[in-house]
Amino acid sequence: MEAGNHTAASLFLLLGLSEDPELQPLLFGLFLSMYLVSVLGNLLIILAVSSDSRLHTPMYFFLSNLSFVDICFVSTTVPKMLVNIQAQSKDISYIGCLTQVYFFMIFAGMDGFLLTVMAYDRFVAICHPLHYMVIMNARLCVLLVLMCWFVIFWVALVHLLLLRQLTFCAGTEIPHFFCELTQILKVACSDTLINGIFLLVTTVLLGVFPLTGILLSYSQIVSSLMRMSSAEGKYKAFSACGSHLSVVSLYYGTSLGVYLTSPRGSSTASVMYTVVTPMLNPFIYSLRNRDVKGALGRLLSRGAPGV
């Protein structure tokens, strides 16, 4: 019976954001535009950081990694959605769905981890400026990023292996525009107790711990800023944190919004942190950061014909 269920569920149905056929061209154009802007914006950040030696610092090393993760993050969900809209289909294969769940967990988790590492970087820069280059050396920066990849790789792999043990009924419908773990567990035909327990543990690991680390870092930063006597020094220190704080607020604010909305509205709310946030991150860092704006200007001027 279980084998039959697996065979019958070789295809899932993604219900998407709307079943109204008149809205499909609008959704296709909107999400294609957001996807292209997101990929192009984050790619420009990576190229600007890699091509400008003045940006070869820990902060911009982490920023370029965040941009890479954001490109992969948005590419995990949006292309399949666009293909389905264009083909007027809702199908996604069993293997394709599990693959989407796996990579979505990896890149969503990496976003949170990198934002935490970047908060620690700002903490060291502001609270221990004289020892910054000693503490945040190249070896530690690479080690922190590799450690994040290692942890999230194994967490996502365990989730995937646990999902493989579940059975699904024929014609399983997923009320979302991509295969999201909690939605998959809701439509499973077998017991999901172990999956739910592990999901709770990893939510603490990937959500609560990173957010707690960010809050602790910024509490120390605020305490250090309060002790500064120079108004100019306070402004300079705060401006160095402004972009990161904006991205953190956007990412965690929209992620929290998904879990506070009703199940019916969760797919719409998910658009904010899966598509809109990766699209806005390059604008936040380029508009609020003079160094990034300068590097982008030099990069674009070198690429312009006749310059």
Topology at a glance:
Blueprint (H helix, E strand, L loop, with lengths): L1 H7 L2 E4 L9 H28 L6 H30 L3 E3 H34 L4 H4 L2 H27 L8 E2 L6 H7 L5 H35 L3 H30 L5 H23 L1 H14 L4
Helix pairs in contact: 2-3, 2-10, 2-11, 3-4, 3-10, 4-6, 4-8, 4-9, 6-8, 9-10, 10-11
What does this structure look like?
InterPro entries: GPCR_Rhodpsn, GPCR_Rhodpsn_7TM, Olfact_rcpt. It contains eleven helices and three strands; from the N terminus they run αβααβαααβααααα. The protein is mostly helical and 307 residues long. A three-stranded mixed sheet has the order 2-1-3. It has helices at 2-8, 24-51, 58-87, 94-127, 132-135, 138-164, 181-187, 193-227, 231-260, 266-288, 290-303, and strands at residues 11-14, 91-93, 173-174. The relative contact order is 0.15. The termini are far apart.
Global shape: globular
Give the amount of beta strand, in percent. Answer: under 5%
The largest pleated sheet is described as: 3 strands, mixed
Q: Widest sheet: strand order?
A: 2-1-3
Distance N to C terminus: 68 Å
- CA radius of gyration: 21 Å
| Low-pLDDT sequence parts | 1-8
How many E strands?
Answer: 3
H/E series: HEHHEHHHEHHHHH
The helix content is: over 70%
Structural class: mainly alpha
Number of helical runs? 11
On the 0-100 scale, what is the average pLDDT? 85
